[in-house]
Fold this protein.
Amino acid sequence: MSLTVQNLHFSYGPIKALDDVSLSLEGGAAGLLGPNGAGKTTLIKILLGFLRPQKGEGRVLGYDIRSEQKKLRRLIGYMPEDDCFLPGMDAVTFTAFFGELAGMPKQEAMKRAHEVLFYVGLGEARYRLLDTYSAGMRQRLKLAQALVHDPKLLFLDEPTSNLDPQGRVEVLELIKDLANGKGIQILLSSHILSDIEMVCEDVVILNRGKVVAQGKIKDLKRMNFRLYELKIKGEREKWLDKLSQLGCLAEVTEDGLVKLYLPGEVEPKEIFKVAYQTGIQIRHFRQSQSSLEDFFAQVVGVD
């Protein structure tokens, strides 16, 4: 999807929503995974130009996210997490209205609205008022309005929220068809690992505003990570940065415990070597039984 950002920072007052986020994605369907509050929605809003990063830069589909937002939005469909409905409208009028907002002529927007509503399974209900729609129908309608102007790239923010298990599968199948059958590039943001696994090959994991892992899901799962728990004294940022360059993943708990995931090719002695280089004292060190599945579970908050 030709999406690249470097060193993005964004804060809401004292709260760091994005902290030095860098990532690069190319084509197909990619997942943006993380717990609620990880910074996923903030990142999407920055990519759309709704928020301006306080530091950093990025390009989407070749366009600069700071200076070319209008050009970019014509090529992107956005399905927000929160409802965005206008009371008193029926589904086809609502969807056509979003097509016109994207620059489509009125007649073309209406024709396209009928097409996408049938595609998402709302053809028979397209003349019903939105006030009468169920939660599942509203999710499908949000997908329809994101598709109406025939975008090259879709940003989908928690597209299966409020859906029952059957509805979740049906919506994910639609998204898979968009990526594989229609050739639309997709960035799917979710806190549910299984949703992303069903649709995407690539994943970026966010936690507390930082990228903690990225790559192909199958490759990340194959990696033989070992978990070590440490307590340290000193400035840990340089130490963790150097370890991340070796492929290590880290999480710091509220009580200051550092959970460090080492890939199979990195020896534990590297932890001490890098600590010496960066002036860190290791006060506590022990290995835990864990796997990358545990890491995913911890990051996304599932059992």
Q: What stands out?
A: The chain has a mean pLDDT of 88. The longest helix spans residues 165-180.
